[in-house]
Amino acid sequence: MEFVIRISQFLLSLSLLIVLHELGHFIPAKLFKTKVEKFYLFFDIKFSLFKKKIGETVYGIGWLPLGGYVKIAGMIDESMDKEQMAQPPQPWEFRSKPAWQRLIIMLGGVTVNFILAYVIYVFLAFAYGDKTTKIESLKDGYWVENEFIQGLGFKTGDKILAVNDIKVINDYDVRSNIIGAETITIKRNGKEQIIDLPEDFLGQFTSAKSKDLFERRIPFMIGAVADSSLNKTFDIKAEDIITSIEGKPLRYFDQLDSLMTNYKSQTLSVELLRGDDTITRQLKVDENGKFGFQPAFDNDRFAELGYYDIAIQTYTFGESFGAGATDFVETLNKYGAQLKAIFNPSTGAYKGVGGFKAIYSIFPSVWSWQAFWVLTAFLSIMLGVLNLLPIPALDGGHVMFLLYEMISGRAPSEKFLERAQMVGFIILITLVLFANINDWI
């Protein structure tokens, strides 16, 4: 079921982004009376799942969900339709239009991507507001479980004060500023100290076995009892919180392993918080020192119990436009910083480049419209930025040649554009293969 929910969100988001991106090309092309021969969701190599011709355009759905396209008459693109390009230019063709019109057509896709992301952020701000965890409310610091992060000098209980010279206010600030970070200022046992990060921190982190960074310290809330658990038939309910084992307090989940070291294959007296009541149960521990419980996470419940404070900012519909703009600009800047790090070999960030599996995995295992729209807005920005890269097979490549034409007054030859398109296509395929291979290694 988890796979079905994730793949459904992934395909819905991908389909929405592709259709709207291609509409960004389609609409100005039609406004400038340019013939659009095909409009496809997904690629139709060899055959289509569906197609129907309406007017002069064939609308269809391909079988390969790696993208989509519009085929505009008289345009050198991935179709490499040399037969059409060998004919005399026709007034309805892309190549016959003024350079400024062709530029608008080519920028239409990324423009729609950015507008879509902004609109989503506006409605997210209005519908959900902003919910943040104040860093100062994490009284006992962070949970550091990742061995790589521990090797850099971090310990459970460290409080993070700043990333580089940027003071962190909210829990989100730590992750959002980690790209390009050189130092992190922490407080440990009441004393401040600075931990230097290696230049290739992102590369090493990506290659590490664990992908945990700095996690909030939370209680052991029971989510489910494993079928193999010795406590399967006991009176244990989801959302019970373990507060004490054999009279020893257990405030945080990260304290469990050290507490259970001496209790393997025993029956223990365990205190549980169920709602507002504290109850006691005799629970069995297996030979590995485990109860056989799967942990759960409930942000609001943990805040209610005083583990941290959640600040909620609500917006009127009018205020949502400003809040949406702030979220859009921040996400755009952070993704730009991420791309900069990826293209800088010394950071090693390229090791973390992922493909479709990585995108699929970021969608939650339970359906959440808020998470769906947050991720769709981010992916829309990502798609827009990537399409602006000056690679001939992408929109940015076409824009680069059009700007050259408008500045110099001379258009590149069709032969040159065909060769550039082929080179760009090879580069693009190589990047796609690299990203998707990275998913599995």
UniProtKB/TrEMBL annotation:
<dbReference type="InterPro" id="IPR008915">
    <property type="entry name" value="Peptidase_M50"/>
</dbReference>
<keyword id="KW-0472">Membrane</keyword>
<protein>
    <recommendedName>
        <fullName>Zinc metalloprotease</fullName>
        <ecNumber>3.4.24.-</ecNumber>
    </recommendedName>
</protein>
<keyword id="KW-0482">Metalloprotease</keyword>
<feature type="domain" description="Peptidase M50">
    <location>
        <begin position="10"/>
        <end position="431"/>
    </location>
</feature>
<keyword id="KW-0479">Metal-binding</keyword>
<dbReference type="InterPro" id="IPR004387">
    <property type="entry name" value="Pept_M50_Zn"/>
</dbReference>
<keyword id="KW-0812">Transmembrane</keyword>
<comment type="similarity">
    <text>Belongs to the peptidase M50B family.</text>
</comment>
<dbReference type="Pfam" id="PF02163">
    <property type="entry name" value="Peptidase_M50"/>
</dbReference>
<keyword id="KW-0378">Hydrolase</keyword>
<feature type="transmembrane region" description="Helical">
    <location>
        <begin position="416"/>
        <end position="437"/>
    </location>
</feature>
<feature type="transmembrane region" description="Helical">
    <location>
        <begin position="103"/>
        <end position="128"/>
    </location>
</feature>
<feature type="transmembrane region" description="Helical">
    <location>
        <begin position="371"/>
        <end position="404"/>
    </location>
</feature>
<dbReference type="InterPro" id="IPR036034">
    <property type="entry name" value="PDZ_sf"/>
</dbReference>
<keyword id="KW-0645">Protease</keyword>
<keyword id="KW-0862">Zinc</keyword>
<keyword id="KW-1133">Transmembrane helix</keyword>
<dbReference type="GO" id="GO:0008237">
    <property type="term" value="F:metallopeptidase activity"/>
</dbReference>
